[in-house]
Amino acid sequence: MIDQQDQVQRAILIHTMRYEGLDYRDPDLRLIEAQGLAEALDLIVVDSHHEPVRKIRPGAYFGIGKIEELKALAESLNADVLILDDQLSPIQQRNLEKALQIKVIDRTGLILEIFARRARTREGVLQVELARLSYEKSRLVKTWTHLERQRGGTGKTGGPGERQIELDRRMIADKILKLKKELEDVKRTRALQRASRKRVPYPVIALVGYTNAGKSTLFNLTASADVLAKDMPFATLDTTLRAVRTPSGRDVILSDTVGFITDLPTELVAAFRATLEEVAQADLLVHVRDISHAESDNQKRDVELVLDRIVKDMPVRPPLIEVWNKVDTLDDQARTYVRGRAAASGRDGTTQSVCVSALTGEGVKELFDLIDHELALDAKPLNVMIGPDQGAARAWLFRKGAVRHEITDEDGAIHLQVRLNEHDAARFVAQWPQALDSQALPKTYVSTSMKQKSIGNCDTEI
């Protein structure tokens, strides 16, 4: 990993282009993304370039000639770190460091280092530490090249004892076991919290998406929160939950989650399992996309790959809608085109999409209208009649955002057309069994002698 020193370190950044055509991402944009990751660690990138690779060498990744070129470049630029935007084996990393005489870090190590510096909560620190230890366990060979043995016995007789590398591996294995036990406690706590929320119950909406797509900015806007939202990768690592009331009056829980990225390390997915279960068990996933990014479609593909890994063990995958964020950064022609695509979405099995700007608030009302629609798909229509003294029942229905039509007759009885899911309907009937009206609303209620109200826009702020 990168040494955390007081002085700023100078880095050379290389994105390798393989001839096998394995990378479907634009190499220039991939290089820019990797540079953003390096700068997130306060590194000074003194050189960044593409490097064509015909064949990856199992010993040191590059051939001898290329290694000599890189060594000369590092010496001329006085570089401290070489960042390779690819995955390195422990042997490759060790041999490159030995040949270049500088620190070498691959893409996985770079992302893990960012996570280590950004984690703030106890849970986040535990998860990142577990991921780092799992990554470093196989890389001890690069630290202990001499493999000296610790003497056994009293010093007079006995066997050679453990090698230092064996001792360190055992210590790391013990730490990993301890961290996993602590994270099991976190997992149980989260399960209890989810069970408690289900008793409320408010639907949980999880914001997911590529890192730096604007999830936290949208979360702050809609939930009146103040989580860190900056133009940098992985500004958010710790899941944040807030209760939100939509314009229709529906109460929901909004969840801001960690961002995804291309080649997200498997160690992180495994370590963040407890956190990512919040995504897998959400009632609705809102995929926030940076629609202004040149590789928005490829980023969508990467997010979907990670989601597939998260929800693969779930019996039912949560429904998903897309938020096309940052439309305020598009020119008029591009905005018109994107809006047309969003308006046409949802047909022929495609994902329903909505255009928004988390910075200006544009499109947020349309987003919550879509959320209300998705959450109401499993709701069933009911006719309810309550007396003028049963204001609590009426208020409960309005808090749920369930009321579609309301009429008050001459006797003061209130007749409502509502939509409730099976769970909420059971709760309502259990609390107010006499309120359920088995007959449809009589047409005679619509007269000049009655007070009639149609439910329109709610005044409640998001």
Automatic annotation (TrEMBL):
<dbReference type="InterPro" id="IPR027417">
    <property type="entry name" value="P-loop_NTPase"/>
</dbReference>
<dbReference type="InterPro" id="IPR042108">
    <property type="entry name" value="GTPase_HflX_N_sf"/>
</dbReference>
<comment type="subunit">
    <text>Monomer. Associates with the 50S ribosomal subunit.</text>
</comment>
<dbReference type="InterPro" id="IPR006073">
    <property type="entry name" value="GTP-bd"/>
</dbReference>
<dbReference type="Pfam" id="PF19275">
    <property type="entry name" value="HflX_C"/>
</dbReference>
<comment type="similarity">
    <text>Belongs to the TRAFAC class OBG-HflX-like GTPase superfamily. HflX GTPase family.</text>
</comment>
<dbReference type="InterPro" id="IPR030394">
    <property type="entry name" value="G_HFLX_dom"/>
</dbReference>
<dbReference type="InterPro" id="IPR016496">
    <property type="entry name" value="GTPase_HflX"/>
</dbReference>
<protein>
    <recommendedName>
        <fullName>GTPase HflX</fullName>
    </recommendedName>
</protein>
<dbReference type="InterPro" id="IPR032305">
    <property type="entry name" value="GTP-bd_M"/>
</dbReference>
<dbReference type="Pfam" id="PF01926">
    <property type="entry name" value="MMR_HSR1"/>
</dbReference>
<feature type="domain" description="Hflx-type G">
    <location>
        <begin position="203"/>
        <end position="379"/>
    </location>
</feature>
<keyword id="KW-0479">Metal-binding</keyword>
<dbReference type="InterPro" id="IPR025121">
    <property type="entry name" value="GTPase_HflX_N"/>
</dbReference>
<keyword id="KW-0460">Magnesium</keyword>
<keyword id="KW-0547">Nucleotide-binding</keyword>
<dbReference type="InterPro" id="IPR045498">
    <property type="entry name" value="HflX_C"/>
</dbReference>
<dbReference type="Pfam" id="PF16360">
    <property type="entry name" value="GTP-bdg_M"/>
</dbReference>
<comment type="function">
    <text>GTPase that associates with the 50S ribosomal subunit and may have a role during protein synthesis or ribosome biogenesis.</text>
</comment>
<keyword id="KW-0342">GTP-binding</keyword>
<dbReference type="Pfam" id="PF13167">
    <property type="entry name" value="GTP-bdg_N"/>
</dbReference>
<keyword id="KW-0963">Cytoplasm</keyword>
